[in-house]
């Protein structure tokens, strides 16, 4: 059962959000030191990756950003910033969405950046758009190349990530059976990558550019994505 009542109290300051970005780059820290800006005035910005000559997510709704802002009363940009995986700008964002609906190949620079981003503390929310098997195979192949086999494992529903903003004790899959719906890579006790081969798209909120998705999508994806953002910004 999924409890829709958010976990309380939520007393997170936006300084937690900046911890993630400071572990990736000194840009924000330097700016704050110069201007004396308070962390609470900063905006949480989530990036959507482009890769393999412009491929990107089409059906990954950003509704979870609005939900997160409402539940935590934090300053969150409603909508993604698009960033290229091979760009140094990647390291400005502590949380990125990596998704798509077709097979792909990453360049050497893209692979290097992805590995470095994760190792330096960035959080990747990865999902096969509309349960696309070709995308899932490509992602898993790249991940195995970069980190070795057996790094992505099923995440126990008791894990803190599922109880950060909402209490979620059940992954509501449209067509149960088959692949493990939620997998994660954990380093030093912290989830670095949250991955679903079935789709965390939240297709119903994805807009006019996305319709008619099939496959075993995750029906409570929005709540899981909210929790993933909360987890990434506070750990």
Poorly predicted runs: 1-5, 7-23, 25-41
Rounded mean pLDDT score: 83
The description of the largest β-sheet is: 8 strands, mixed
* Percent helix: 25-40%
User: Termini separation (Å)?
Assistant: 26 Å
Q: What's the CATH topology label? A: Rossmann fold
Succession of helices and strands: EHHEEHEEHEHEEEEH
CATH class: Alpha Beta
Q: Strand-residue fraction?
A: 15-25%
CATH superfamily: Domain of unknown function DUF4159
Number of helices: 6
**Number of DSSP strand runs:** 10
Based on helices, strands and strand pairing, what is the structural class? alpha/beta
Short description:
By secondary structure, this protein is α/β, with parallel strands linked by helices. The protein has one domain (2-234): Rossmann fold (3-Layer(aba) Sandwich), CATH 3.40.50. It has helices spanning 15-24, 27-35, 63-72, 108-119, 133-147, 221-234, and strands at residues 2-6, 47-51, 55-56, 81-84, 95-100, 123-128, 153-154, 166-168, 183-187, 190-196.
Description:
The protein is an alpha/beta fold and 235 residues long. The chain is 30% helix and 19% strand. The protein has a single domain (2-234), classed as Rossmann fold, CATH 3.40.50.12140. The protein contains six helices and ten strands; from the N terminus they run E-H-H-E-E-H-E-E-H-E-H-E-E-E-E-H. Strands 2, 3, 4, 5, 6, 7, 9 and 10 form an eight-stranded mixed sheet that branches. Residues 1-5, 7-23 and 25-41 have low confidence and may be disordered.
Task: Please tag this protein with its features.
disordered N terminus; alpha/beta; eight-stranded mixed beta sheet; two-stranded antiparallel sheet; 10 strands; globular; single chain; 235 residues; Rossmann fold
